[in-house]
Amino acid sequence: MANEWFVNPAGLSRARLGQLLKQEELAKKAGVSPRSIRSYEKTEQRVRIDTLQCLAEALAVEVKTIASLRSRASGEPTTTAAPSTSPIPPRTQLETLVDLERAAGIEPATVKTARGPAETLTAKLLQDVLTAYALHDGSRFVLTGKVDGMRGIAPDEAKLLGSRGGVAARFHVVKEVVPGKPVGVTVHSGDRAHTTRLQKLYGKDATLVVRVVLVPGEPRDDGPGFSSFITRIAAKRPWTFAVEEVAEVEGARPAAKKAKRRAT
User: Comparing C-alpha atoms, which of 59, 63, 60, 54 is closest to residue 8?
Assistant: First the structure.
């Protein structure tokens, strides 16, 4: 009796988010269309094994992580190999970027800002904040990258920034860690002038000074939080990078630094 592979929407979405990939980025890596990725994450459906293998390779996971094998007649899952018992999960895209950054000798530099010194946000510092955000409450960083996304936020989320709905917003900034290897960072703007400035810089390079801001009280899964470009809208994070300063990068993007040079 023939068997068929069915994509697991939740499994595919989790694997993609674990790699910090947008749907369009996964589509490009796997050689499929963005429309297909959106469809796969929306509803369970039959998928060719070669397509699943391309997706699994792009996500650095096993096929069974994102799909299940079923009997064509019954539609019931067939017996598959036992899940991997390896205690080490697949490396994420950010972990790979941290490795590349370390190999290039890139370290955070200290920059003078209007509110005092701040470090450039490297992949390692981003990893540190994502891992233990409460340890970095109030920390300030300088982020340079292309503003390539913007979304409005709900009034309750805006209040966490001391702002209001229709003024506060979130922006996606893409920073190149090493040549050809970018990472996306979500930042939130609560100030009218900052939001306006970032809207004008959409599609351009900008330098931002951001500060780690936490929601008040003990964070809860069902509590208040900040929306992100790498998580579902319903899964809000209990912290964000709040914008303090915005400046356009003059001229073309600078050439990549050689190894052993500091990040800018």
Answer: 63
